[in-house]
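Minutes, project check-in
Item: structure for the 453-residue chain
Input as provided by the requester:
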Amino acid sequence: MALKEISQTRIEDEGTLQISPMNVAMFNKTSNLEYQETTPAIPFEFIQNRQDSTESELSTTYSQSQSEAYHKLMCRAPIASLDCMEEFSGRSTSLGSNPAIPVRNNATTTPGLRYKNLGKSGLRVSNVGLGTWPIFSPGVSEDQAEAILRLAVDSGINLFDLSEAHSGTRAEIELGKIIQKAGWKRTSYIITTKIYWSTKSEERGLSRKHIIESVQASLQRLQLSYIDIILVHKADSMCPMEEIVRAMDYVITQGWSMYWGTARWSPVEIMEAYTNCRQFNCVTPIVEQAEYHMFCREKAELYLPEMYNKIGVGFMAWGPLSMCLGDTQNGERLWLPKGSLKTKSQSYSWTEDEVNKEERMEETRRIYDKARDIGTLAEKLGCNAMQLSIAWSLKHEPVQCLLLGATSAEQLHQSLQALQLLPRLSTGVMLEIERILDNKPVRPPPISTLALR
């Protein structure tokens, strides 16, 4: 059949190619791949070599050859990322068969360290950040603090978190001196500091005046031209949310900060801030900093992933190292989180106080038992309970950056070894931890307003 007759024929059968004179002409004039993918045409050489075939055989043969080529090109298995290749390259071992985590003596980039986007922004941060509140505590000298910071930078950590509520203004002053002395490039590290609101301080509230003055004072103490992320520590119920978001937008517009976020805000307060930002055309927050460890899970696992999916607020966690050792009656020392034993407010009735005291004692015993079982599991994995807690927190997808603190370079080095434990936390190990903890948060069922009436 002649080429002209074939080109003028429109094949109506579903699943075959549509041929028109424009397609044939365009194929001869151009080799644009984009046009060939969107509007496929039968090549002239293919038709010339099969002039003796019928119209249906020609279209069917070319359709099958084109389909096979497309399948080989587009349907091949995707190349695995380096993150997945490194994490799952080894075989997952069962409990009790894991050797001890090897200690690395060289100060190179730590295996298992990843860089993720913070929230739905373009800012790339290491999945492990350095919390400076214990580094600049009174018991740590300047030389020790500098050694910890240098080890963190050499290990690949690029985020340093400052908190005026814990270490005061000394942390910003000392960190600024160390940065100037080390001569690190400004583009190689990320500084997060907090605007702290406390009823005990003279500058109360989150007024526009307090926010702007706090940011300018932090810049002066850090000896920097800008701060990467400013976190508003605690929400102020006495200050309008519009004033807070407009002040943070002004700070970013002036170039004093690149982003802003929140710390210890409730999901309702975060959503209120986001709504005001959209209403008044202000920069929205990108991160929420909250506590997260084995005994504090509800906010991080139920509500913050929803905040990320809806409004792009990421999650920066702290808590695995805010642990203490408690003495038992047998003289043993157990790893225990400080926030797990929260004291309840006393009532005006001595009988209620007695009941609350018994409940607290029972809760304490349950947590001690869980902590002992976690420590036993950690021994089977060849690590300590602290390293298992760090690896467990990083294993959860919502955690984009986990803040670690240290009072010595050796302690930070041991904490970073927990990253090598991540490939060993298989599904069986995670299920065993869930069985021990038995505190997986569950979203409460929705309440009907009609039923409330």
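Outcome recorded: The two ends are 79 Å apart (CA to CA).
No further action items on this chain.
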